[in-house]
Design goal:
alpha+beta, 3-stranded antiparallel beta sheet, 45% helix, disordered C terminus
Length: 392
């Protein structure tokens, strides 16, 4: 039921069992601390002007309450500083506040899924607390391991369009069709966009549509300095821009056209080539990747994580949902009659497994002083088996 020729990936946000008020970043903590400092100053002034012991006692209780809260925020502030994390959650520490749609945010997990195109069956999933940008490489690598081949095409939307991830996937020998985001700087005339400039790898030059070569000094510049995404690149330009009659169609820059090229440019070019050669194929991505999410979230109502306390539990939660989806999908595809026949084969395999399992228990029983006879009934205790294995 798995075609193994086309896979499509996507992510969806499932809300965590947590309120936004229990999620903090540096700005939010600073805002709370400022508010508390103002209240403490006000309370100290109130004590000085208080009439009677009752009023002083109430004010002192408020000071104690706000001081305790201040210490709590200070601890969260210190934890953010030590870990370098952008935000922190108290009740579910690995959940993160994310954009759900538009300007709407929720404390959530981002569930990544890779779906085989033949029958819209998910083959890989992963629960993350990050956006889509760094997810494609790991998902496709796991899909390759499951399918046992690299002879397939991966379809992803523009949220996954990063050089590092394209490099990982293409480095595995897998064809990519990843949507290209709108470029911030475009030529006034589309005929003079960068994609229409021809790169000569041997001479390390570009040639513009008017036939002028753009060269580089070889100097490396650094983009996104001081961040984890910093990238070195070279600039290409030509003096011919000054006297070029179509300069106004090519660029708005006074000093002429400048093209930037970094180590990921070949990956972007390869992906662009694939998109241009088969645009109809990419259009299938949405119908493939969003089929499971539409069923799970809209029809079944699973728009949030049921468990708490981290990604591991959330992943188990989502895993059960995908198992249910795949079983129902298979039943729908093959029909009840064929499903019963298939279940009969599974039942036979399960009975064989039980016999092997009991044989292992009997062997262990002969090697240990722990009595395992009661474990060989129809309800074996895995915890006791692990205990015995540890003892041996």
């Amino acid at each position: 039921m798995i075609g193994g020729k086309i896979i499509a990936g996507d992510g969806t946000k499932l809300r965590a069992q947590k309120s936004k008020k229990n999620n903090f970043n540096t700005k939010k903590i600073d805002r709370h601390l400022k508010y508390i400092d103002n209240k403490l100053q006000q309370y100290n002034e109130d004590i000085a002007n208080a009439d009677g012991d009752a009023e002083k006692e109430e004010t002192q209780n408020n000071i104690k309450l706000h001081s305790t809260r201040k210490e709590g925020y200070k601890k969260l502030q210190q934890e953010l500083k030590e870990t370098g994390a952008p935000q922190i959650s108290t009740s579910d520490p690995e959940s993160r506040q994310m954009v759900i749609r538009g300007n709407t945010t929720e404390v959530a997990y981002n569930v990544q899924s890779t779906v085989d195109a033949k029958n819209c069956i998910p083959i890989v999933y992963e629960v993350t607390n990050q956006n889509d940008k760094k997810a494609m490489g790991a998902m496709v690598r796991r899909a390759k391991s499951i399918l046992g081949t690299t002879d397939f095409t991966a379809l992803f939307d523009k949220g996954y369009y990063t050089g590092t991830e394209l490099g990982i996937v293409q480095g595995l020998g897998i064809k990519t069709l990843v949507a290209i985001p709108d470029q911030a700087s475009k030529a006034p005339d589309p005929n003079y966009n960068v994609k229409n400039f021809i790169y000569d790898q041997h001479n390390d030059t570009y040639t513009c549509p008017e036939g002028h070569p753009l060269t580089t000094s070889g100097k490396l510049y650094l983009k996104y300095r001081g961040t984890s995404n910093q990238t070195e690149f070279k600039q290409y330009r030509t003096k011919a821009c000054k006297s070029c009659p179509v300069k106004d169609l090519c660029t708005k820059a006074k000093n002429g056209k400048v093209i930037e090229r970094n180590i990921f440019t070949p990956m972007y070019d390869e992906n662009r080539k694939n998109m241009e050669e088969d645009p109809e194929l990419y259009l299938r991505r949405q119908a493939i990747a969003e089929h499971p999410f539409g069923t799970i979230k809209r029809q079944w109502g699973f728009d949030h994580i049921l468990s708490k306390k981290g990604k591991k539990r959330a992943s188990a939660d989502v895993g059960f949902i995908f198992i249910a989806y795949n079983l129902k999908r298979i039943l729908s595809l093959i029909g009840k009659k064929d499903f019963r026949e298939m279940y009969g084969h599974f039942k036979l395999c399960f009975n064989v497994f039980i016999q092997v399992y009991r044989g292992i228990l009997m062997t262990l029983n002969s090697l240990t002083t722990v009595n395992l006879n009661y474990l060989t009934n129809s309800k074996p205790n895995p915890k006791m088996l692990i205990l015995v294995a540890n003892q041996q």
